[in-house]
Write a structure and sequence with these properties.
5-stranded mixed beta sheet; 156 residues; 4-stranded mixed beta sheet; alpha+beta; 9 strands; 26% strand; 3 helices
Amino acid sequence: MKTLHQFLFYVALATMMAITLSTAWGETKTVKKEIHVFLERQILVAMENGEELYNFDIVTGKDGKETTAGSYRIFSKHKKYTSKKYGSEMPYTMFFTKDGKAIHGTQMATLRSYLHTYLTESVGSHGCVGLTDDNAKALFDWAPVGTPVIVKTEEQ
């Protein structure tokens, strides 16, 4: 009789452990993150599981230094970075093209975004996507390497 009780005890214990483990393991979720850059509207939208998480004003490339529409991925991140080509400080840099285009903090991003959208493209960037430093930090902390970056024109 003792063996039957021990057997039932171990079956009950194993069942409880299986339920606990499956509950603990079942709580892991896949999080889908994407960054959408809208060139004409000069906004960046960060999406998590299909829902808008962030919506930031941006400044993109000026004439002759355009930010190119396409699908990319963040492949390198640097909290502090200085452009080798232009000598500009680029806080919270996330590179998404091999030719050096990145999402990063920049000076007067909101004002430049407005001017770029409504008045003149001459205040644009050299092809990067510029944000305020605070917005760049929030995005930098949120987006891991590998996050898709989709740069779109309004027609797309």
